[in-house]
Backbone:
């Protein structure tokens, strides 16, 4: 801990840790970032369209994750009065604030895959 | 899915999903980003120093996460020939590439806490 005071005061450091912990608690897990990413970049989708776009996710997991994202005001769920009834999911305007983070996650993933592949060849 | 072709080709889209999935598989969970963040910003630490700096993490969880991060070349573990023997953990130069991502995670966490707090007041 000796180097903490070189860069951060203790209260600044606590704030950083809290902020990282907030984000990771909300968005961690394999799927949530991908769910929001797909809704942001591919647009509004029905449940089964969204499920197909994500690949290997189970229906129960997707349903639970969507519910948590709804509570956190990142996704809206709209029941449409069609026959049969359809349910659509959409990223909220607030979810747009996650775009820079999603881009960083995607960029780092591409770079990391390249690095690991090069190391295996070497 | 109808809007996919407006922005991405199918193969571009698959690449994006793969990249996000790679990063989230490696870094998701509540602690890994915080472990790397603390080693990057606070410097080299012994196991117990690192544990204290993180707060509520258990020793077994920390040990497992450090091992995974070591395998992925983000952390090095050095056994020092002192009496008693000490074990130090350090972020690798490669881990520096995570700084923009960690900053985005921290910034979003701060903004989100502010938003949620304001909504509760309103």
Residues:
């Amino acid at each position: 801990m000796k180097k903490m005071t070189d860069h951060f005061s203790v209260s600044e450091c606590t704030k950083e840790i809290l902020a990282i912990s907030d984000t990771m608690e909300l968005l961690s897990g394999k799927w949530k970032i991908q769910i929001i990413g797909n809704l942001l970049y591919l647009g509004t989708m029905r449940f089964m369209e969204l499920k197909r776009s994500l690949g290997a996710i189970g229906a129960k997991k997707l349903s639970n994750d969507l519910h948590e994202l709804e509570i956190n005001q990142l996704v809206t769920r709209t029941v449409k009065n069609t026959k049969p009834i359809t349910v659509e999911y959409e990223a909220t305007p607030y979810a747009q604030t996650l775009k820079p983070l999603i881009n960083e996650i995607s960029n780092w993933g591409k770079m990391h895959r390249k690095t690991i592949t090069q190391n295996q060849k070497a």
In short: Chain A has two domains: 1-29, 31-121. Strands of chain A lie at 45-46, 75-80, 86-91. The first helix of chain A runs from residue 4 to 7. Chain A has six helices and three strands.
